[in-house]
Structures are given as structure tokens and as C-alpha cells.
Amino acid sequence: MIKSVRRFLSASGKGMKRSAIREILKVLQKPGMISFAGGLPAPETFPVADLRDIVIEVLDKSGAEALQYGTTEGDAGLRNALVERHNKQGLHIGIDNLIITSGSQQALDLIARIFIDPGDYVLCGLPSYLGGLNAFTAYSVKLKGISLDSNGMKPDELEKAIIHLKESGRNIKFIYLIPDFQNPAGITLPESRRIKIMEIAEKYDLLIVEDSPYREIRFSGEQQRMMYELDTTGRVITLCTFSKILSPGFRVGWVIGHPDILDKIAMAKQTADLCTSSFAQKIIALYIEKGLLEKNLKKTIALYSERRDFMIKCFRNYMPENVSWTEPEGGLFLFVTLPPHLDTDDVLRKAIERNVAFVSGSSFFCNDSGRNTMRINFSYSNPAEIEEGVKRLSAVIREELTGK
Fold first, then answer.
1. Rounded Cα distance, 281 and 316, in Å
2. Which site from 6, 226, 261, 399 is most exposed, i.e. has the minimal number of CB atoms within 10 Å?
3. In order of start, what are the domains of the chain with their CATH numbers?
4. Whether the predicted model's global pTM rises above the 0.90 cut
């Protein structure tokens, strides 16, 4: 029996950390627990009956092909369906601009693998998606956080950070953004700011990774053009997924970008999983072809809009006055800020004792700040659970504020 695995680990292996989000999901098995923690879609949105019929049709018509290995770039039927769909939405892409991945999380890993050398810098939001930060740090990257305001990442601060890093001899590879209903903050970048950030990226010759899992879950406000659509120089790489608009169980996402970049992603993917599930891709392609994706997406948006509105109502009714939160136009999350002297790690421990869970905001800050913040998911729980969960959480926060 070996004494310790650690001495065999690489530097990356030693530096790996468990996801705070995945770890907290373990406590959700506790009876009576109400979870605002994971970014989980509502099971009611899963079109089980329609998919049952689609699965049978795929097996009847192309069963052997569906159960075989596929190409690394992805099923041609699905890629063409996505190209057509995006072009109707305002993009101008061909099949060579799109590759299928095993979820957008794999895309984050592949992008890190092909672009990041140890010691390189990536610029990201303060806060930013934990899964993206973990994917990058696994390749020994240095993260530089840029503050957000109510309109997202601050361009002036971004440019100052770039200048400072370059003058210090640092190598910056890309800017990582979630422009629509940012995870965890729920903020959307207005087009004017997208253009400004694009100009900064062009000025200093940086790539932009546009992570876009929530874009189509919009309840209100005006749709902003994708950064990929605004790009004229081939520097934007856009990540999308079916996890939030159909089902995370398929583990199917896609990347849009310059063909030369996608070629490198395909090479990296060949050593990762050879190909994404052919079966899942053919199911989704036929689902889109029949017009069912758009139909089900409308129902999903309506449900999540109702739950967001109801959760905000409950926050207004039950939360102490000195607690604030974002009110996003779409997506899955509210971001909550408590008074500066409170630590949401402490709040979380007591909340779990009261059978309500969330994710502490510090997990999303690459500089270990944000300790008085929390991310709250509104998509998964039903209205009765939302109200009871907000009551429990509000009670814990009041106790922390009063010291009782």
C-alpha cells in the first residue's frame, strides 16, 4: 500500500480544489433541506414525453449511427441546426465556426489547455463563475479580477489592469466574461460596454472568452448583441450549452469561434473524450428540427420569470433592511450583499442547520474578497419552497445582525 498519493501528483494535481458548489450539493440530501445553492434547472422544464418519442425515432431511423463513435467536431445535423439558429438570431457563421463539446464546462477546460502556460494571466470579473476560474487555475494561471458595477465589468479598471500587467512583464492571454445574466451577479453588459471592452481587447491584442449559458433565459429588458456578433477581428470565442435551455443530463454544449481556434480545440478534445455522445447529439438535432426546443424554451422562461418575481417579492417581505440584492432580467441567480462585517461562510453553517442552503459569494472572487455576499438560485425551488427558504434564511441573517 502506498503511503501517500500526494508525492505522485503533478503541480496541477496538488493545486486542485474541490468546487464549493459541487461540495455543498452533498448536504442537500438532508431531509427537509431547501436548496438555493446549485444552478439547477427546474425538473418541470424537462420535456420527458417529447424526448421519449424522439429517442424512439432516432433509434428507429439511425440507431446504428447514433450508438457509434462520432466525429470530434460533432454531428453535422446538430451543427447545421445550430448554425441556422444562430444566423436567424443575427450571427453570420458557417459550420466551420462551430464545434460540439461535452458541455460548456469541457469547453472551458479545452480553452485553458490550448492557451494557458503556467504563469499566464487571465482577466475575469469580481465576482465570476467558479467553474471557469477552477478550469483556468488547473493550468497554473494567474487570475486578475476586475470589479463589476450595475453594468458589469468596468472598462476603465480593465484597461488599467492590462497596462499595469504588461508594464510588469506579465503575459495576458484572454478576458473571461459572462455578458448575459452573469453568474453569480445576474448582471448584463449593455452593448455600449461590450463595444468598449472589445476595443480594449483589440488595442492590446487579447482574446475574449464569452461564456453564454444563460443568454436565452431572458424575462425582461432588451436583448443585447453577442460579443461574437460585435467582433470584427476573430478574437471572440463564445461558449453555449443545452444545460440551461433543455437538459444538463445530455452534457452537450458548443463553441463558436474562428476556424483556426476551433481546429486547436478539436485536437485537444481528441485527447479528452474523442467525441461527444453521438446519441445525445442526434436526439437534440431532431428535437430542434421538430421545433420543440423553441416551444419548450418559452415555457421555461415563463416559469423562471414567475419564480424570480416571487423570490424578489419574498426578499422584500422578509429580508432585513440593510440587505441588498440584484434583480436580474434573466438567468438563474440573485446575488445578495450583507453588511460588510458579516461572513456568509458563518451564515451558511447556521443556515444549513435550519435546512436552507446557498453558495457563499467568496467562492466567486479570485482575490478572496466578497465574504459578505451570497449567490441564490431561484430556478429550482417551487414557490412554497422559495417562501419558506427565504423565511429561514432571513431569520438566520437577522440573528447574525443582532448577535442573538
1. 43
2. 6
3. 10-47+294-402 (3.90.1150.10), 49-290 (3.40.640.10)
4. yes
